[in-house]
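This part of the workshop introduces the protein records we will be handling. A record pairs a protein's sequence with a compact description of its fold. Comparing a sequence with its tokens is the quickest way to learn the format. The record below serves as our worked example for the rest of this section:
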Amino acid sequence: MPKLQEILLQPEGRRIEFKQTLPAKSDIVKTVVSFANDAGGTIFLE
């Protein structure tokens, strides 16, 4: 698995999405379902 620093340098796409603020619960669920139904991915929450 790539290091976090390497991931943060990549552009957003099918497997990476960055959020500056924590979205509403329903939006988080939509993101998780989208990742699960498409190419997979990793979700990082701060």
Notes: The helical segments are 4-8, 25-37. The chain has one domain: 4-37.
